[in-house]
């Protein structure tokens, strides 16, 4: 009935305006006042309800998911923790007997690309729940109250969809929650504060006794930025770390993504897992995809190991470039990379995976290292050897040219970062010290002392192998790329002949 009254009123006003215009009355002021009144009335309805609609429409596309935990690799510990937490939704009758409070929120933290979104989708599948997803940026607007309105509409939509589908629960996934859940500092960010306050209110349990139950799963890679009120028990009850996979996890991920690809029988995925140290799940997926692309370029029916090796280089360094260096530059770059490779083999035998002279990304050449096993703790001796490997290129340039080039800039950054780690870990002559109390001059003195000492050791070590440099230089310039095994065989042969 209300709809008809609105149509009748609108028709009457329109006819009245036409009548006034026909009688020669100036209707412009009437139109301005009418437009202003309509705008005020429209904007005052629900503080942002109008602008929350687009977000709701987007989330409707994600309410059905078929992702399961078996399709996610490399996160066994995170999957186990998440499964235990989700059992509170699945086994509601059992937890009611024991008087266990329903879980309200799960926070997934970890680096980008580790599978936090996939875990949220698998959680919805595991609990047979409606799944809605949103990004933290969708709730941020310059108008006060818009974000809060979108939060209300998101929770309302989750309940309505769950009831309509006959589900007992719904999972709401909010990616990059640090956008709206950052620490409140009492400043002028009223929109952020109201959005966060509304989220806190929804999670506080106003509707906790109602069916269907709402479980919030949020993801962030900056947990330290979140407000303490959001992190407390009763809101986010579980904090689950989703870290970079270890070698076993990387192998599992590679096998999952290789299931629909024609891998050659000679491909050793364990070797690929070893060479992709530090890769996230997203990067490993990209390695398999890029390997298939390289196979297609060469019109190969199967994906060979060399295709995956090139894919690792592309993911790490970028695509090959067509920059043409002069003969002098190529020789300097070759000596620089040989300095890295020879230093690496001397301080950590078997660690070089590939030596390349071809430009890739911003680098004119590179050495890819193959860690023999994943490491999580580092000794002073190990970090010293890492610095010597990083300084090997600059040391080789000083030995043969008497000076360095700008190509050592990235190596020096890496070396100084290692020095900072050593200082903060109490592995220097300073002992245990608060790094925040270090002055810039003190940092400069410590860094100069450590790097100068290790540079002298590196130069002395490489100077004793000058003949190895000169004899292997021609081979590298000719071949452009040497595998780790070929390089070690060459190094062994030249060392014996020397």
From TrEMBL:
> What is this protein's record name?
ATP-dependent metalloprotease FtsH
Which species expresses this protein natively? Paenibacillus catalpae
One family name in Pfam for this protein: Peptidase_M41
Subcellular location, in the record's words?
Membrane
Q: Which PANTHER family match?
A: ATP-DEPENDENT ZINC METALLOPROTEASE FTSH 1, CHLOROPLASTIC-RELATED, METALLOPROTEASE M41 FTSH
Q: Which InterPro entries match?
A: AAA+_ATPase, AAA_lid_3, ATPase_AAA_core, ATPase_AAA_CS, P-loop_NTPase, Peptidase_M41, Peptidase_M41-like
**Keywords attached to this entry:** ATP-binding, Coiled coil, Hydrolase, Membrane, Metalloprotease, Nucleotide-binding, Protease, Transmembrane, Transmembrane helix
Cellular compartments per GO CC: membrane
Q: Which family does it belong to?
A: Belongs to the AAA ATPase family. In the C-terminal section; belongs to the peptidase M41 family.
């Amino acid at each position: 009935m209300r709809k008809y009254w609105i149509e009748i009123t609108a028709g009457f006003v329109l006819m009245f305006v036409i009548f006034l215009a026909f009688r020669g009355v100036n209707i412009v002021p009437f139109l301005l006042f009418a437009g202003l009144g309509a705008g005020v009335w429209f904007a005052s309805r629900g503080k942002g309800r109008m602008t929350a609609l687009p977000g709701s429409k987007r989330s409707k596309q994600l309410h059905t998911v078929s992702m399961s935990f078996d399709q996610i690799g490399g996160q066994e510990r995170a999957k186990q923790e998440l499964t235990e937490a989700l059992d509170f939704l699945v086994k509601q009758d059992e937890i009611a007997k024991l008087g266990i409070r329903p879980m309200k929120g799960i926070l997934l933290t970890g680096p980008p690309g580790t599978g936090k979104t996939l875990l949220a989708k698998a959680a919805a599948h595991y609990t047979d729940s409606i799944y809605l997803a949103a990004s933290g940026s969708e709730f941020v607007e310059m108008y006060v109250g818009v974000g809060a309105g979108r939060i209300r509409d998101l929770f309302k939509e989750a309940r309505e969809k769950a009831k309509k589908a006959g589900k007992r629960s719904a999972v709401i996934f909010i990616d990059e929650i640090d956008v709206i859940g950052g620490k409140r500092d009492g400043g002028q960010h009223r929109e952020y504060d109201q959005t966060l306050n509304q989220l806190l209110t929804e999670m506080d349990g106003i509707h906790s006794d109602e069916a269907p139950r709402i479980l919030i799963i949020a993801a962030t890679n900056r947990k330290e930025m979140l407000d303490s009120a959001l992190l407390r028990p009763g809101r986010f009850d579980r904090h689950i770390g989703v870290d970079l996979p270890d070698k076993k996890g990387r192998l599992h991920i590679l096998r999952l993504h290789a299931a629909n690809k024609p891998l050659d029988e000679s491909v050793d995925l364990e070797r690929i897992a070893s060479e992709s140290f530090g890769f996230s799940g997203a990067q490993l997926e990209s390695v398999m995809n890029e390997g298939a692309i390289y196979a297609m370029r060469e019109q190969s029916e199967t994906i060979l190991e060399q295709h995956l090796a090139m894919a690792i280089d592309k993911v790490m360094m970028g695509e090959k470039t067509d920059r043409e260096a002069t003969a002098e530059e190529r020789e300097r770059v070759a000596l620089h990379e040989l300095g890295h490779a020879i230093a690496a083999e001397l301080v950590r035998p078997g660690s070089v995976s590939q030596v390349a002279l071809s430009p890739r990304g911003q680098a004119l050449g590179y050495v890819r290292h193959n860690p023999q096993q994943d490491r999580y703790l580092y000794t002073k001796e190990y970090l010293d050897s890492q610095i010597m490997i990083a300084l090997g290129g600059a040391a080789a340039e000083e030995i043969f040219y008497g000076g360095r080039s700008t190509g050592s800039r990235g190596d020096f950054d890496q070396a100084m970062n290692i020095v900072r780690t050593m200082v903060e870990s109490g592995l220097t002559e300073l002992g245990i010290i608060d790094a925040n109390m270090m002055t810039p001059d003190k940092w400069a003195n410590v860094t100069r002392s450590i790097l100068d000492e290790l540079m002298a050791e590196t130069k002395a070590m490489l100077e004793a192998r000058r003949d190895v440099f000169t004899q292997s230089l021609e081979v590298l310039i000719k071949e452009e790329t040497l595998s780790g095994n070929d390089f070690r065989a060459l190094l062994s042969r030249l060392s014996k002949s020397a």
